[in-house]
Amino acid sequence: MRRVVSFAVAAGTARAVYEGLRGLPRDARWTRTNHAGRQVDLYAGPAVVLGTAAGSGSAPVAFAVLAAGACGAYDDVRGDHRRGLRAHLAALRDGEVTGGTVKLLGIGAASLVAGALLKERPVDKVLAGIVVAGSAHLVNLVDVRPGRAGLAVFALAAPGLLRGSTAAAPMGAVAAVLADDLGESTMLGDTGAHALGAAVGGAIVAGTGRLGLAAHAVALVAAAVRGARGLLARSPV
Asked: Shortest CA distance to 43 belongs to which of 77, 10, 71, 68?
């Protein structure tokens, strides 16, 4: 029953926020040209952030979701086109704080705080933080075409429904906007993708022991490294 309530609260909140934002005058800061050259809004992002936080039923997970969404929103609105960790760290050495740096430090710190609240032993706290941050990065990494991130959330979160209700919130929030995302009228952006990923990570942490956390952490770090190498390979020399 808790899973159903969590799903419904997340879906209802996300849909209400999305419809409210869509009724506002178009804001260029929240508009993008997608891969097909269509103008789409980024309103699905804030909608799923608030929906997931409302339905999570866990203060640490809600905190991670809101923090990841805020960092993603900063990058959506204020970020630039620099790609890859090296580029952002190089800018930081020169005294420039990029959107990528805000995400790296902000989501990383929030994930460690959430992990510390979700687990009791020091090693588990660190592993939990890595899983939450890594999951946030992974969902954003696959968000390259309409619906990809949303479908990834369903695939990653579905097993968690067997262990608790936390996984129902990101699934409900995604369900509320997935048709619009697939229809290319909106997109999650960094705001929504990072927040949903953090929620999935929180669900994994809540229902997983140390060995499982370690396995997830290794897999997520490997995915992040592979993704970074892919970005470098596609970057001009």
From this structure: 77
